[in-house]
Design brief:
26 strands, alpha+beta, seven-stranded antiparallel sheet, 48% helix, 5 domains, HATPase_dom, single chain, Beta-Lactamase, 16 helices
């Protein structure tokens, strides 16, 4: 009774543990998903704030260039030639966001103010007590640009930002200052261009916490201090660099957002973008409900199964008790029969009947199709219900049919019988059989010889794998189609990229004198991007050719493959002063050109990612492990963060900035694909950054086929 109760207890304990394990896994997955959503929102906000900062910087740089030009042309704020006044008014037309240009003398008198549509107020006006004039009089020797917070324009009272530079002659004498009154519209436009969705927001503020602008536009906050806001506290905590804050409550509308901020390069302005936290977590909350429902359903299924198993255990206990009672009664009956017959004959007959009945029960309840045939004439003795369904023949009509009639090729059955005779057992032999209606199907056969009633029989298990074979063929064909598609797309993309690069180069040559430095820089960026994409496509082509254009596998001396790779890298080795040493390497079955490519990539990476001002040392060794050759390429370079090794062998994955180390991130993915084709794998070990790393790859060893003089089998070294 205690054994039975323990069995039921184990069933329910296993159900509870399984439900708890699934719940724990689901909770961990939900936590990881939440972190992924928040991280993605942080990165999006950081990218958008960087884009806004770049756009604001471009506008400020253009205005600063105009202001510098004004300081170079104006000698005396009090006297302005008419032609220069006309020229400055023309400049205002070029920049629609400019409100006016003002000239102030060294005493703080506004001597000139130029509007787009002519003068609006009489000058001079004494403005020496304004913050930007005081700052200019105190810091004019530094010669830097002063950027004020939004203030009312002197005459029109329109909110403007004042950009001011000192007027200093060639003798170093201060004559006053020149300033631009700029509307905040250009900052509004930059912020509006990066706000992704409704409920999100963007803003720009000074490093000392004065708001320039906010989007959605709300002029009530323009020029106000935000030093008490969570955004400014996060910015201050970052020491004035770009950063993010996951929980920042808006000072204007009270919405909690994920905020990122980026200083505008070269100017005292910080751009910030906030993404509504509730919207970011909305999708995750839907996942939470879905996971909760699935988990509840799964727990219900687990406990339902536990209930059924427990009930089945009780039924089995009851049946066992009945069988035990019946067996006892049968034993008593046999004991009475023994008295009437000889003990030896009755014992033999009872044992034979029991064995035959047990065998038949096993065959009947088997989940696999089973066929019992005679060795003597190949006649079918018995098939179970599953075999009847598989062959399409009723059980009561299968007896005495000839087994070879169910084989497409009768000789295959004869070969199976010969193998069975020699080995006594067959496992998973593939054969082509046919059903009662003549339909052919592919099956896996396992067979053994048995003896019943003194007659030699063959028991065969038949597993129909026709659908599995079809799926394998479909999968192989799909992989071939995918590789062909990848190759065709990568190849066809090369020509448009070459045309883009060619026309950009032609554009730069033909209009060189008409383009400013920014335009030349932008063209350089575009050409560089096209060239990098071309290299990436070329690498992708190489990746897709590993299986399509690989040579047949043959005997390859890895010493020769390494020598060819080092010859290709001779220039890089000489320039870096690298020291490459290696032990004797084995001979393996492989593609010589592809294995050379693996060595070239690994040694080339060891040279490329060396420590600064250090000649790298690269060591190549090989060791045999469980039927595999494991080749190691160790270096003393910059090393790898162990947490990042999981994505190192994926396509287009890079662990270092592109401007620090060139490359497309495909080389190690190609190495992985090559070694998979050779039946091996590749991995990397590193103690961490600055500790060097060791790349290892395995490849099957060639089985020993030759013998030495003493007769012992030896493998090719």
């Amino acid at each position: 009774m205690m054994v039975v109760q323990r069995a039921e207890f184990r069933i329910w304990a296993a159900a509870v543990l399984l439900a708890l394990a699934c719940s724990t896994a689901s909770i961990w997955q939900l936590h990881a998903s939440r972190e992924a959503h928040l991280h993605a929102a942080e990165q999006l906000a950081l990218s958008l704030s960087n884009a806004a900062a770049q756009r604001i910087a471009v506008s400020l740089r253009s205005m600063d260039m105009l202001l510098t030009e004004v300081t170079e042309k104006v000698k005396d704020p009090a006297t302005l030639p008419s032609d220069l006044s006309t020229t400055l008014r023309t400049k205002l037309d070029v920049f629609p966001e400019l409100d006016s240009i003002g000239l102030v003398d060294e005493q703080g008198w506004l001597r000139q103010i130029i509007y787009r549509d002519g003068p609006k107020r009489m000058v001079p006006v004494h403005i020496a007590d304004t913050p930007h004039i005081r700052a200019m009089q105190e810091t004019w020797r530094e010669g830097r640009l002063f950027l004020s917070p939004p203030v009312p324009e002197l005459f029109t009272l329109t909110p403007v930002i004042l950009l001011t530079r000192p007027l200093v002659d060639s003798q170093g004498i201060f004559h006053g200052s020149a300033g631009l009154a700029v509307k905040t519209d250009f900052i509004d436009a930059a912020l509006a261009s990066v706000v992704p969705k409704a409920g999100d927001a963007a803003g720009a503020f000074s490093p000392d916490g004065v708001l320039f602008s906010r989007f959605p536009v709300d002029k009530r906050f323009t020029g106000r201090s935000i030093r008490d806001s969570g955004l400014f506290r996060a910015y201050t905590a970052s020491s004035g660099t770009a950063g993010t804050e996951r929980r920042a409550v808006s000072f204007s509308d009270g919405i909690e957002r994920i905020v990122a901020f980026t200083p505008v390069p070269g100017y005292d302005v910080v751009a910030a973008v906030g993404i509504a936290r509730a919207k970011v977590l909305d999708r995750w909350q839907r996942e939470l409900w879905v996971h909760g429902g699935i988990q509840s359903l799964f727990a219900g299924i687990i406990f339902a199964l536990a209930f059924r198993l427990s009930r089945s255990e009780r039924r089995r206990r009851k049946v066992s008790s009945q069988l035990l009672a019946n067996e006892r009664a049968h034993v008593e009956l046999l004991e009475r029969a023994v008295k009437e017959r000889t003990a030896e004959l009755n014992t033999s007959l009872a044992a034979l009947a029991e064995n035959e009945e047990r065998f038949r029960r096993i065959v009947d309840i088997s989940p696999f199709p089973l066929v019992l045939t005679r060795r003597a004439d190949n006649g079918v003795v018995y098939i179970n219900e599953r075999a009847s369904e598989t062959f399409g023949v009723p059980q009561n009509q299968a007896a005495d049919k000839v087994a070879p009639n169910f084989w497409v090729h009768a000789a295959d059955r004869a070969h199976m019988i010969d193998t069975l005779t020699a080995q006594g057992l067959i496992r998973n032999q593939e054969a082509l059989l046919k059903r009662g209606n003549g339909e052919a199907f592919t099956a896996l056969l396992s067979a053994a010889t048995v003896t019943l009633g003194g007659e030699a029989l063959v028991l065969t298990a038949v597993l129909d794998i026709t659908e599995r074979k079809r799926l394998e063929e479909d999968f192989a064909r799909s992989n071939r189609d995918l590789e062909q598609f990848s190759y065709a797309v990568s190849h066809d993309l090369q020509e448009p990229l070459r045309m883009v690069s060619s026309y950009l180069a032609l554009l730069e040559r033909r209009y060189r004198d008409q383009l400013d430095s920014d335009a030349h820089e932008f063209i350089g960026f575009a050409v560089d991007g096209a060239q990098r994409m071309s290299r990436m496509i070329s690498d992708l082509l190489e990746y897709s050719r590993v299986h399509r254009r690989g040579n047949p596998l043959g005997s390859v001396d890895l010493n020769d493959a390494l020598s060819d790779a080092l010859a290709n890298l001779s220039t890089a080795i000489a320039e870096s002063g690298a020291h490459v040493e290696h032990q004797p390497l084995p001979t393996v079955q492989g593609d010589a050109s592809q294995l050379m490519r693996v060595f070239q990539n690994l040694v080339g990476n060891a040279i490329k990612y060396r420590r600064p001002n250090t000649s790298p040392t690269v060591t190549i060794t090989a060791a045999q492990d469980d039927g595999q050759w494991v080749v190691s390429v160790a270096d003393d370079g910059i090393g790898i963060d162990p947490a990042a090794t999981g994505r190192l062998f994926q396509v287009f994955q890079r662990l270092n900035p592109r401007d620090a180390y060139e490359g497309s991130g495909v080389g190690l993915a190609v190495c992985r694909r090559i070694l998979e084709r050779h039946g091996g794998r590749i991995w990397v070990d590193s103690a961490g950054e600055g500790q060097g790393c060791t790349f290892r790859f395995s490849i099957p060893a060639i089985p020993p086929t030759t013998e030495n003089e003493e007769g012992a089998a030896v493998a090719t070294p």
